[in-house]
Amino acid sequence: MLSDRNQERDRQNNRGRALRCGAGVLGLALLGIAATPAHAETIRSQQWHLTSMAAEKIWAISKGEGVTVALIDTGVTEVPELTGRLVGAKDFPGADSAKNKTLGTVPASAIAGTGRGPGGRESAFGLAPKAKVMPLNITDGVTGEGSLADQVDAVSEGLAPALRHAADSPAKIISISVSLGTDEGSVEVDDAVSYALSKGKLIFAAVGDADYVDDPPVGYPARLPGVVGVGAVDKKLTRVKTSAVGPEVDVVAPGADVIGACSGGTGLCTSKGTHVATALAAAAAALVWSKHPDWTRNQVLRVLLNTINGPAGGEVRSDYIGYGALRPLRALKTPGDPGDPDEFPMPDLRDAMMTPSPSTPTPTPTPIPSASQAVVDVAAVGGDGHSAGFWIALGVSAAGLLCVTVGTPLLVAERRRSLPS
After folding, report:
1. Which of 19, 255, 341, 398 is the most interior residue, by most CB within 10 Å?
2. CA–CA separation, 281 and 293 (whole Å)
3. Could you write out the DSSP letters of every residue in 336-389?
4. Rounded distance, CA 170 to CA 294, Å?
5. Measuring CA to CA, how many Å separate 121 from each of 43, 86, 116, 311?
6. Is the pTM of this model over 0.85?
7. Tens of pLDDT, residues 296-314
8. 380 to each of 105, 233, 313, 330, 383, how far by Cα in Å?
9. Strand pairing class (251-254; 228-233)
10. Cβ pair 251, 257 in contact under 8 A
């Protein structure tokens, strides 16, 4: 159970309002049928997110070798595409109670899928196919018992020790699929994030998704200083409608119709949401860190931010897409100066560590663009010489994927995917 100190803070902050319009714990919103891909298309050709990032050009420079990503999710199935890529899997409190214990399989394959499916046949690739994934498994909170706040607490009970384990592990990067719909989290999770940051870990977390409210607010722990909050964009580089909005959105990555490996049926699933976008952001960092193993977390993140595809309105960042869409190819080819190895490149962590003096002026907040401005600047030139419009031109739709909605009450960010029959 959470500490008395934490329970008192929960009462003070009325965490009964943690549930935002049914947004759920590692949501199970869309379950459906995935047809076998058309024979005229390879599975790789249907992975539009890899095409948009020029994956083959990236792999000529880096495949993420030597870097481990700790993936905090409900569990990962040892599918053929992940043979030799999974290390040090561990369950944490509540993992056995997860309603779906394999939701982390698609994000894991999005990070490190080898492209080799059952029998060695061609299948889904990850963005960093030689990276390792450490599955750290927690509950999805969908227990059907207790109050909604109790279920949020149950997720926190597993999340805090999972973060500490990742902090003490060889993993350089932590990818958190969880997005709790609460303004205040647990003291234990807060402390665990601080501990992981003190160990030099680069932490990415899903900002969350919700179908039932316009511009859903960013969830927890993506709200915490030092955590890189990841939102989702579609094939047009436009924010996915369900992706959370707020000042804690730092970057975006593909998070719609992402094809990855899973168990059963055809062995392929499509996924939508900020959890898979977060996995791709972590994979992008793994690519850069693999090429520059002597860099610190701060330098890797700074280069990713310096080479980003910014908001279309020309502002530094927006509450819809943060600083913009990650461009790992440009980060690899023209990284520029990685800067101070000891200085965190985003202002939130620096601000949280500073006590402002009375003379410190209040910074002017970044204006929030209208929904029509919540797109990436498609005129920006990418690191491979193509305009960002190249991302759009090469987007390939996944063929024959049908979905049906399942009305599951959700506690945290709604997660979507199509399952094979």
Report:
1. 255
2. 18
3. -----TTS-SSHHHHHHH----TTSPPPPPPPPPPGGG-BB-TTSBPTTSSBTH
4. 15
5. 10, 20, 6, 39
6. no
7. 999 999 999 999 999 988 8
8. 33, 16, 12, 12, 10
9. parallel
10. no
